[in-house]
């Protein structure tokens, strides 16, 4: 790690409740309804990616603190589970209002800690807010099923009940949206929640926890711990945690899925991606090129749904020079600067890794048509910036194709036909998202049906499903069997209890033991 200057000024809007104002500010834990300073001696610095100045430190919570957090969730569970669904809904209704009122403030925190542009950070909060809004329809989402008169005097009905203590482990790239996929859905179903935000972007989660408390969530219903591997292992192993929601890389997610499952927990894990945009020659050129550039380079490519691979089919390969022209025009700057289209990568290590992968393209025979590695951003010379980069002539055995780059790099491949393009996409192990650009309905339909990817866009470059649906990435982009949010999210955070009941009138009661299975 390099020597980093401590940020001289902490923005005044940094809420003091969850952030102490010592010389190097420390992020607090949220345990049993209180924002408390950790007693740990292990801290992790986190930085403003546009300057690499230290913003603050997150604690690696001690075992005692993590145990206290689970104990608090456990104590809060029985009464929270028994709280009427209408009361839980009321809290969420207040919560969505408070998130709306504070959306810009949360977004500023995201830009400071994560680097994305303010407008994009507002989108981050907004897409999470939509999940909270949808969770307000819990009163109908939680309804069970009934079947009357299954036999004489007998009815069957099922309840959807909470699991107990659930836990979430979040990545750095959507500091608000992804935590909001997790605890609001779990809590509205009657679970209590232990959240571990990404150690690189803790602020938004802390802010959102404060807003939830202000909405009336009882103490202990949400607890927050910080840390890395030890916190993750703690979550995977603690017997009182019933379910884990994870979003992040394959490396961490496959490990967590395996370890959590082995311990008898439900685990849902949204993982990495390599998303292909198939460009047909009949597509609307103007619209398609704009969509490709936006979806490849927006958020500096640090989205699991970034459209990071373009497959140009047939004559569409002639559009490459125009694609490059458009990408060149994007403005790279610190996320809080007016007019910025994309900001920095999260860390110097992330930048170095992406530069390495770009370099591998040259070595392995691809051409770099646009190279953003040497970019200088005035006033932010120490930031982790890479400008839009386009690598063409890419083949499926190259490193830049096999790896998820997670930077502002668009890899361009060519195909002679739709069928060839479909085969390329299906041969790739990931199944998160894909898009086809065409004006032909039959082409779009064929692609949507044959492509083995969980989220498909037809002239929509980033087809993230709205919260009444679920986030349905597939194959190597997902582990588990029940997806995030929507009906699947409700299923994940509940278990069914089925009740078979018989009420006979006096005159039809049994007169002798029934010793055979009823037929
Ligand atoms: P990451 O896996 O490094 O970190 C995610 C979380 O896991 C963090 O809380 C971190 O503390 C913890 N963690 C990291 N390494 C660990 C390890 N070895 N053992 C145990 N825990 C560990 O991911 P990231 O860099 O924060 O996020 C980027 C990745 O997330 C990309 O691969 C991206 O595609 C993926 N992602 C996927 C989705 C999706 O919905 N499919 C959404 C967003 C991000």
From TrEMBL:
PANTHER family: MALONATE-SEMIALDEHYDE DEHYDROGENASE, METHYLMALONATE-SEMIALDEHYDE DEHYDROGENASE [ACYLATING], MITOCHONDRIAL
Xref: PROSITE patterns: ALDEHYDE_DEHYDR_CYS (PS00070)
Catalysed reactions listed for this entry: 2-methyl-3-oxopropanoate + NAD(+) + CoA + H2O = propanoyl-CoA + hydrogencarbonate + NADH + H(+); 3-oxopropanoate + NAD(+) + CoA + H2O = hydrogencarbonate + acetyl-CoA + NADH + H(+); (R)-2-methyl-3-oxopropanoate + NAD(+) + CoA + H2O = propanoyl-CoA + hydrogencarbonate + NADH + H(+); (S)-2-methyl-3-oxopropanoate + NAD(+) + CoA + H2O = propanoyl-CoA + hydrogencarbonate + NADH + H(+)
Single Gene Ontology MF annotation: methylmalonate-semialdehyde dehydrogenase (acylating, NAD) activity
GO biological process, one term: thymine catabolic process
Enzyme class of the recorded protein, top EC level: oxidoreductase
Protein's UniProt keywords contain Transmembrane helix: yes
Gene Ontology, cellular component aspect: mitochondrion; nucleoplasm
Organism this protein belongs to: Monodelphis domestica (Gray short-tailed opossum)
Pfam families: Aldedh
Coiled-coil zones: none
Name this protein carries in UniProt: Methylmalonate-semialdehyde/malonate-semialdehyde dehydrogenase [acylating], mitochondrial
Gene3D superfamilies on file: Aldehyde Dehydrogenase, Chain A, domain 1, Aldehyde Dehydrogenase, Chain A, domain 2
Keywords carried by this UniProt record: Membrane, NAD, Oxidoreductase, Transmembrane, Transmembrane helix
EC number: 1.2.1.27
The keyword Repressor belongs to this UniProt entry's keyword annotation: no
Limits of the Aldehyde dehydrogenase domain: 35-499
Family: Belongs to the aldehyde dehydrogenase family.
General function of this protein: Malonate and methylmalonate semialdehyde dehydrogenase involved in the catabolism of valine, thymine, and compounds catabolized by way of beta-alanine, including uracil and cytidine.
Transmembrane intervals: 161-183
């Amino acid at each position: 790690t390099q020597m980093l200057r401590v940020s001289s000024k902490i923005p005044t809007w940094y809420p003091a409740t969850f952030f102490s104002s010592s010389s190097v500010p420390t992020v607090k834990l949220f345990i049993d309804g209180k924002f408390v300073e950790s007693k740990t001696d292990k801290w992790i610095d986190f930085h403003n990616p546009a300057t690499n100045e230290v913003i603050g430190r997150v604690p690696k919570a001690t075992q005692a603190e993590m145990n206290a957090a689970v104990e608090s969730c456990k104590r809060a569970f029985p009464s929270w589970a028994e709280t009427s669904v209408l009361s839980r809904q009321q809290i969420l209704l207040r919560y969505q209002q408070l998130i709306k009122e504070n959306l810009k403030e949360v977004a500023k925190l995201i830009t400071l800690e994560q680097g994305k542009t303010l407008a994009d950070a507002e989108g981050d909060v907004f897409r999470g807010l939509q999940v909270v809004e949808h969770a307000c329809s819990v009163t109908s989402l939680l309804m069970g099923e009934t079947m009357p008169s299954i036999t004489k005097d007998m009815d069957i009905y099922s309840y959807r009940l909470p699991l107990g203590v659930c836990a979430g482990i979040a990545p750095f790239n959507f500091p608000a949206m992804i935590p909001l996929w997790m605890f609001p859905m779990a809590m509205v179903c009657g679970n209590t929640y232990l959240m571990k935000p990404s150690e690189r972007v803790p602020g938004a989660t802390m802010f959102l926890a404060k807003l939830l408390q202000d909405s009336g969530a009882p103490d202990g219903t949400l607890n927050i711990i910080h840390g890395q591997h030890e916190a993750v292992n703690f979550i995977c192993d603690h017997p009182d945690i019933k379910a884990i929601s994870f979003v992040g890389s394959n490396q961490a997610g496959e490990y967590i899925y395996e370890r959590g499952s082995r311990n008898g927990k439900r685990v849902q894990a949204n993982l990495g991606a390599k998303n292909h945009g198939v460009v047909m020659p009949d597509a609307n050129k103007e619209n398609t090129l704009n969509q490709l550039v936006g979806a490849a380079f927006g958020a500096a490519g640090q989205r699991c749904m970034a459209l990071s691979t373009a497959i140009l089919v047939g004559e569409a390969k002639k559009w490459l020079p125009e694609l490059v022209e458009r990408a060149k025009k994007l403005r790279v700057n610190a996320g809080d600067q007016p007019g910025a289209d994309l900001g920095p990568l999260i860390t110097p290590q992330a930048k170095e890794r992406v530069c390495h992968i770009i370099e591998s393209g040259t070595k392995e025979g691809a051409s770099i048509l646009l190279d953003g590695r040497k970019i200088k951003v005035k006033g932010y010379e120490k930031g982790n910036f890479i400008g839009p980069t386009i690598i063409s002539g890419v083949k499926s055995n190259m490193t830049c194709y096999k790896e998820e780059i997670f930077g502002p790099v668009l890899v361009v491949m060519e195909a002679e036909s739709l069928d060839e393009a479909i085969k390329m996409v299906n041969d790739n192990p990931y199944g998160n998202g894909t898009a086809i650009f065409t004006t032909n309905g039959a082409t779009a339909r064929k692609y949507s049906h044959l492509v083995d990817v969980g989220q498909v866009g037809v002239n929509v470059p980033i087809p993230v499903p709205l919260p009444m649906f679920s986030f349905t990435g597939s194959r190597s982009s997902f582990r588990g069997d029940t997806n995030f949010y929507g009906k699947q999210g409700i299923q994940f955070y509940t278990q069914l209890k089925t009740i078979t009941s018989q009420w006979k009138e006096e005159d039809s009661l049994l007169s002798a033991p029934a010793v055979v299975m009823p037929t």
